[in-house]
Amino acid sequence: MMVRIRLAALKDIKPQEVVQRFLFGGACSLAAYEIAQRFGPVIGGLFLAFPAIFPASASLVEKHHRENVQAAGGDGVTEGRLAAAMDAAGAAIGCIGLMGFALVMWRELPLQPAGLVLAESLLAWVVLAAGFWLYRRRRIDSEPTVLPKV
Amino acid sequence: MHDLLIRFLIGGVVVSSFSLLGEIFQPKSFAGLFGAAPSIALATLGLTIVRHGHAYAAIEAQSMLPGAIAFFFYASAVSRILRHYKTHALVTTLALMPVWFGIAFGLHTLLMRWPV
């Protein structure tokens, strides 16, 4: 399946969901900072890859998919949960990119200007995440699921 | 206080932006990549570099690596359980959170014993 951009999906998102994600993201950033202040950068660094927002996003994926299927006349419970499973499989692949991001930051930050290192790290995340997704997509897409096209 | 407010605002903008990006892409497995975007790291490391310097931020980035490996195993476990047992997403993701803590702090302990 080719990657598609579906801007219409933004219409399914309620304003309060965007506000929730904003508040949650802000709170997570503050928590990561406070942990680093209290316990030092070694423990603080672990929490830069803490899946803080992941439960909320997986839950929203399940909810949106279930509502779409229910609008089409189906039950949607199983489909919603399978959509969340696919989302989590993608997140696992994204973690390989996250490892690349951390590795580039760690090795390059003492040697190069910060802006350049941030750009290189972000590029490493994009290349690794998209590359591994392309490599694994046939297997992920061939997993037995009952996902409808909504 | 000013510093905390800026961290909160940047964190909120970066996390919600990646989250919205994840909504518009299909298939769902590709959209899921954004669930593991370095959003918190992008939001905090820039300010950390300005405030504490490159060396301090590099230590945080080094520690981020075991966190990311733990996230990989956690997300894989969530995906497998949701796929096979069709459990509730929020309950599953929260119930499996100890997987992240166990692997992240386990790897952290190993790295402390045998530093790279």
Structure report:
The complex is a heterodimer of chains A (150) and B (116). Chain A has 150 residues and is mainly alpha-helical. Chain A has helices spanning 15-39, 41-46, 54-71, 77-108, 114-142; one strand spanning 4-5. Chain A starts with a strand and ends in an 8-residue tail after the last helix. Residues 146-150 of chain A have low confidence and may be disordered. Chain B is mainly α. The radius of gyration of chain B is 16 Å and the shape is globular. The chains are: A mainly alpha (150), B mainly alpha (116). Strand 1 of chain A pairs antiparallel with strand 1 (25-26) of chain B, so a sheet runs across the interface.
Q: What are the salient characteristics of this protein?
A:
heterodimer, A: 150 residues, mainly alpha, 73% helix, disordered C terminus, B: 116 residues, 2 domains
What is the chain-wise order of helices and strands of chain B? HEHHHHH
> Could you tell me the number of beta strands of chain A?
1
The residue fraction in helices of chain B comes out at over 70%
Cα(first) to Cα(last) distance of chain A is: 14 Å
Principal-axis shape of chain A equals globular
The SS-based structural class of chain A is mainly alpha
Distance between the termini of chain B: 36 Å
User: Hey, roughly how much beta strand do the residues of chain B contain?
Assistant: under 5%
Biggest beta sheet attributes of chain B:
none
Q: Would you summarize the structure shown here?
A:
The complex is a heterodimer of chains A (150) and B (116). Chain A has 150 residues and is mostly helical.
How would the blueprint of this fold be written?
The complex is a heterodimer of chains A (150) and B (116).
Chain A: E1 4-5, H1 15-39, H2 41-46, H3 54-71, H4 77-108, H5 114-142
Chain B: H1 2-24, E1 25-26, H2 28-31, H3 39-52, H4 54-85, H5 89-95, H6 97-113
Helix pairs in contact in B: 1-3, 3-4, 4-6
